[in-house]
Amino acid sequence: MATWTVILRTVLFFLSLAMMLASLALIAVGFWMRYDNSFDTDLKNLIYQYNDPKTLADAKFNIRVWLIVVFWSIIGLSLGAVVTAIFGMISSVWSKRRGLMITYLFLIIVLVVLEIGSGIAMLIRRNSLHDATNALVNAIYTSNSVNDIKIIQNTYSCCGAQNNVFNVMYCGSMSSLPYCDVTVFNSVDNTMMISGIILLVVLILQIIATIVPVPVLISRRKSITYSYEPAEVSRF
């Protein structure tokens, strides 16, 4: 086996290992944030409260749908990245099985396309998230949900909502605190941006890992072709 082929296989192994570790870490953080009762307990209780007036209940439902879609999209893509990374490590070590590397290349191309598509969809739907958080905060103040108001104002150090008629009641005329609909959206948006940056790093690793196997497969194909060429038979 040529030296450069060994180097490329080594690079592929460590790229796949890094991709697997990053994906497992993202899965662990996602499940911790979603299911650990010690993480943002008050906010979880606010979102998952089901005995509210219809307007507030609908606003909370829309936020829950957003969170569920984003959560399972990240978990699904991360699990796909873990499986693909395992194929990458196996194919980089098991050099005699060309089919493994072909399978890995197919899986990672599909994964990269799905991740790019998901990222574009999230960017397109960002305005709807803004509308959903605005609707939630306005519904909380309009329905005078005292417990929910206390939670968001204490959590985000804010009061009221933009253009809300109840601002004077909750903020006072001299308040310098930011509006809660602005701070809630900024908090959610920043969290998504951080997740997006992590996924972008993983995506860059995956794109590099998509390129690395190509020369290895080409080299392997040529060696197989040459090995099966019939030897010239001498006439003498």
Automatic annotation (TrEMBL):
<protein>
    <recommendedName>
        <fullName>Tetraspanin</fullName>
    </recommendedName>
</protein>
<feature type="transmembrane region" description="Helical">
    <location>
        <begin position="12"/>
        <end position="33"/>
    </location>
</feature>
<feature type="transmembrane region" description="Helical">
    <location>
        <begin position="102"/>
        <end position="124"/>
    </location>
</feature>
<keyword id="KW-1133">Transmembrane helix</keyword>
<dbReference type="InterPro" id="IPR018499">
    <property type="entry name" value="Tetraspanin/Peripherin"/>
</dbReference>
<feature type="transmembrane region" description="Helical">
    <location>
        <begin position="65"/>
        <end position="90"/>
    </location>
</feature>
<keyword id="KW-0812">Transmembrane</keyword>
<feature type="transmembrane region" description="Helical">
    <location>
        <begin position="193"/>
        <end position="218"/>
    </location>
</feature>
<dbReference type="Pfam" id="PF00335">
    <property type="entry name" value="Tetraspanin"/>
</dbReference>
<keyword id="KW-0472">Membrane</keyword>
<dbReference type="GO" id="GO:0005886">
    <property type="term" value="C:plasma membrane"/>
</dbReference>
